[in-house]
Amino acid sequence: MILEPKAAQILAALAMLAPSCFAGEYAVLSNGFRIHADRHETEGAIVRLYANGGVTELPAQQIAGFETDGEAPKPKSKSFIAPLKIAPAVPSPEELVTAAALRNGLPPEFVHSVVSVESAYRTNAVSRKGAIGLMQLMPATASEYGADPTDPRQNVEAGTRYLRDLLLKYQSSDHQVSRALAAYNAGPGAVDRHHGVPPYRETLAYVGRVLRKYDKQATPAKTARPSGD
User: Fold this and answer.
1) In 30-185, at which residue ranges do the beta strands (DSSP E only) sit?
2) DSSP H/E element including 27
């Protein structure tokens, strides 16, 4: 078969282009990934990758180089391998409460009952009187325990230590737990002045709510309940 000169030139050109058109190439990105393309064009700061009848535009600065299809991948330099960073798990408010209770020798159910009534586990809770965070610490109390009341972990730790200290303060009382809770709500001064739970509507309601929640949560573990009530 004799080809006409023009047809022969076209076939010759196609033969020369075959390796690049059909074999293609890989664009090696700066992060180490490789993208297959039939060919590429560079226009200023933009590189166009042509593949399967479509085109993908990338910033030239994201491309480290090109490899022909079939070429053995070049060893990636360490600069291409980004270290895997795993963010530390952030404890939930419930986990913070349980951990603080165990550290301070209190039944977790008891401290959970206090936090549930105080803030419903809202880390950003602020009362009208200025009590802050999960355990609704007043700034003066937080300062006494060297805590930042806006930090959930420090808030729970300081509040739990304060609750423990109040239980120790009233440990000789037949109503140790009620008095400690009343002091947590209204202040130790009010409890001492009234020789027991002060007759404040808010404080009486508070003590009752905490004890009911604790009784409900501690049913399977009654022996863990603080003695005195």
Assistant:
1) 34-37, 39-43, 46-51, 54-59, 63-68
2) strand 25-29
The 10s digit of each residue's pLDDT in 90-124 is 899 999 999 999 999 999 999 999 999 999 999 99
CA angle 84, 85, 87 (to 5 degrees): 150
Count, residues in the chain: 229
Please give the model's pTM, rounded to 2 decimal places. Answer: 0.60
Residues in contact with 8: Cβ distance below 8 Å, sequence separation at least 6, in sequence order: none
**Rg for the chain (alpha carbons), in Å?**
36
d(CA 224, CA 229): 13
Rounded average pLDDT over 50-63: 78
Other CB atoms closer than 10 Å to residue 141's CB: what's the count?
A: 19
Tokens read off for 229: 């009530």
Whether 118 is a known active-site residue: answer yes
Q: What is the pLDDT of residue 75?
A: 53
Distance separating alpha carbons of residues 146 and 8, to the nearest angstrom: 89
Q: Which of the residues 4, 41, 95, 118 is marked catalytic?
A: 118
